[in-house]
Design brief:
- By secondary structure, this protein is α+β, with helices and mostly antiparallel strands.
- 51% of the residues lie in helices and 17% in strands.
- The chain folds into two domains: 215 residues; 107 residues, Immunoglobulin-like (Sandwich).
- It is built from eight helices and ten strands.
- The chain is flat.
- About 1% of the residues have low confidence.
Length: 352
């Protein structure tokens, strides 16, 4: 079983009520609880191994305190799931919760925070602590999205600049004739790690939808996601554009993607032959990083690098800001819903 699928697998197979019963140790669902524990046990070791490998390749520091707390918390959580004594189970869950809190406090990257908060959500559901579970759930969604946004620029030409920086810091740049070859080697390692972070972040966001429903936050329809591969140079040696994620609404109403909510509207303008298309962006919770937003008219090329953020239709949603509304005129008679909201040139929210 791939990492970060145990929760979504149980939810898809048995429904949210089955997931809640398995996490809370419902004695009538003994076989299901055992299945969840087995699935978690099979996947969590791989998650810890993958996280360590990713962070080392991205030159992120995986604090010993964080790694120890995550590892001990995982084992304690699995032990709690395997026990039948309610009192012992509750004690083990409290111990696991405290370990994951320590891990979250010592985390050094958004991905590390997201993983720790994910476990805190599981502990809160198992302990029946809905309010604390919702706090962890919101932090899980925010951190997973921030991890995705921080890493996706490396799935593109930005990876070569990062590789050059790493090479310069290492003091092992070597002869000029060998330097660019070494840059390409490092870039390949970084690209693989960035792709794995993106997959993990998307997996965490998918789990967050199920966990949010288990906490009573309501069912969030899943948008249609399509990764647009980066383009390569004619020589095929290096990437010249950055990979982007296309997000299409699952139906009428806002499109929800982690903590982001995107709503569209179109109204007639005072000018003949023109309608005003409005997109409202809301974040809950607010992010700790700014978002660069561009509202693109139908047929407008998507911005593939940060240079596209400086257009008159670009705006910044500051860190900590709860939301923003953008409006632009579009010719009447055209498909207004074909407009696109670009977030950091990486996430492309379509309205159809």
């Amino acid at each position: 079983m791939e990492p970060l699928t145990a929760i979504t697998m149980i939810a898809a197979k048995y429904g949210i009520s089955g997931l809640i019963g398995a996490l809370t140790g419902n004695q009538e669902l003994g076989s299901l609880s055992a299945e969840l524990v087995g699935a978690l046990s099979a996947s969590e070791d791989r998650l810890a191994e993958k996280l360590t490998g990713i962070e080392s390749r991205l030159d992120e520091v995986l604090e010993q305190r964080y790694a120890a707390a995550i590892g001990a918390g995982q084992r304690t959580l699995l032990d709690a799931g395997a026990t039948v004594d309610p009192r012992v189970r509750a004690d083990e869950l409290v111990r696991a919760r405290d370990l994951f809190r320590d891990a979250s406090a010592s985390a050094r990257s958004p991905l590390q925070i997201a993983v720790a908060e994910r476990y805190l959500v599981l502990c809160a559901i198992a302990l029946g602590r809905t309010e604390t579970g919702l706090i962890a759930w919101r932090l899980l969604g925010r951190s997973a999205l921030e991890a995705l946004l921080a890493t996706m620029p490396l799935v593109g030409p930005g990876v070569y600049e990062r590789a050059r920086e790493r090479l310069a810091k290492s003091g092992r740049a070597g002869f000029r004739s060998r330097r660019e070859e070494r840059v390409d080697e490092l870039a390949d390692e970084l690209l693989d790690a960035a792709s794995e972070v993106s997959d993990l972040a998307l997996g965490l966001l998918a789990e967050a939808r199920d966990l949010g429903e288990a906490l009573g936050a309501g069912r969030v329809p899943e948008p249609a996601l399509d990764f647009l591969e980066p383009e390569e140079a004619d020589s095929g040696d290096r990437l010249v554009t950055t990979g982007r994620l296309e997000i299409r609404p699952p139906g009428p109403g806002p499109t929800r993607f982690g903590p982001l909510s995107v709503s569209w509207d179109a109204v007639p303008s005072a000018r003949p032959g023109v309608q005003d298309v409005t997109v409202t962006v809301h974040t809950e919770p607010a992010l700790s990083v700014p978002l660069h937003l561009t509202l693109l008219a139908p047929g407008t090329p998507d911005p593939v690098d940060p240079a596209g953020w400086g257009t008159p239709d670009s705006h910044t949603l500051g860190a900590g800001a709860p939301g923003i509304r953008l409006t632009r005129p579009v010719a009447t008679g055209g498909p207004a819903a074909a407009c696109t909201l670009s977030v950091n040139g990486l996430l492309l929210f379509r309205s159809t």
